[in-house]
Amino acid sequence: MIKIAVLPGDGIGQEIVQEAVKVLRVLPLSFDMQEAPVGGTAYDLTGHPLPQSTIDLAQNSQAILFGAVGDWKYDTLDRPLRPEQAILGLRKHFGLFANFRPAICYPELVGASSLKPEIVSGLDILIIRELTGDIYFGQPRGKRIASDGHFPGSEEAFDTMRYSVPEIERIAHVAFQAAQKRSKRVTSVDKSNVLETFQLWRDVLTCVGKSYPEVSLDHMYVDNAAMQLVKEPKKFDVVVTGNMFGDILSDEASMLTGSIGMLPSASLNKDNFGLYEPSHGSAPDIAGKGIANPLATILSAAMMLRFSLNQAQAASLVEKAVQHVLSNGLRTADIYSEGTQKVSTSEMGDAVAKALKTLV
Ligand code: IPM
Ligand code: MG
Prior knowledge:
alpha/beta, 10-stranded mixed β-sheet, Isopropylmalate Dehydrogenase
């Protein structure tokens, strides 16, 4: 019995995770999938975005399948109670430091990208984002309010950007090892021309790179990387970067694949325990309309089968089923183009499940 903690979260999270569960159920594997609230949904139910009972369920599972968290209606809450703290808390609690965000442009979706077909066709890059350090978690952070409480003008806010050598080393090893299985090229993205944190990052990457002589290492400033990603994205293979730059660059890279609704992700700890979620957010503006693209979540479930559950064959079948559905011309609104068939979230899930049935 494979135990999976299913945490749909907020907004479209509920709709897309349901489709991934539907697809997993087709596989000839026996799953025990239990659901728990997280994010704003959990706050409404329990007063906390990451209740202990949700952590306990995850702790007793082999992997976490996650939807998305966040809604503007929680923007006025104290930061520790905001929905985003649920995903940050899970990453920290389970030490999920290595975030894999593969950006693959499926041939059928070349036309759905906002970039010219020749720029994105055949694209297959892997963004590796460090996930438990950087300015997201550095201390101290806060807001100083002047004694007269006068605003604007007399307040300040601050966050601390911080990385230690062991934190950089472990993500560097992950990147070089991933590159060994691909085209043996790593681009490390930093801002060492301005930031001490990223000078250390560059020095450690160079040092770790010496143990992988067969892998070539380039360093690139983040502003240049953002530009190169839309100019000539196929020049990249494995991109490794910190938490903040990785957040930004992975959203940018998603558009090379046609839609942010296509980008899956895996967040792993040192024991390969993982949380699997689409790289996109909860999209409250389209929640409940049945138009969200479930493919990033379904592809995240495939990553879960491969990385945490040792089911590489099942993972490939799910990916094949997705490809099959795309070749048949089915598209959710975000990837729709003339001549294809527009389907809803659940119709897309049904189609992938049906295609998978013919493969297993
Ligand atoms: C992501 C998201 C999160 C992040 C938010 C929801 C906290 O944008 O996973 O990319 O910033 O890491
Ligand atoms: Mg993000």
